[in-house]
């Protein structure tokens, strides 16, 4: 890892969530089960460690019995200017599928566009771009 990266503890849904994020953002995905890591503190087929490496990097796991699963309150993953406007719009729409749009992706008075969405796995995203990027 060369930069700070979000690591999410999912409530038994990491095996669905991480491939979903790979579909949205692209990149390379590795999934490792509890059994593969020799862990006995969770179901053998649960995800002990997953890595998405690409334009958006993300780590994830299935929460163990002592872990609290992701509950994003007062925080979001910011993808501001992380790609060209068309790509960011596509990401927003894909994350909104099955999720909840908090604030639609739209032009703002200060000359940028942004919006917020909570995806179907509970991650809250702030996505936006400056209009001079278009």
TrEMBL record:
Domain Glyoxalase/fosfomycin resistance/dioxygenase: 14-125
InterPro entries reported for this sequence: Glyas_Bleomycin-R_OHBP_Dase, Glyas_Fos-R_dOase_dom
A Pfam match: Glyoxalase
Name listed for the protein in its UniProt record: PhnB protein
Organism for this UniProt entry: Agrococcus carbonis
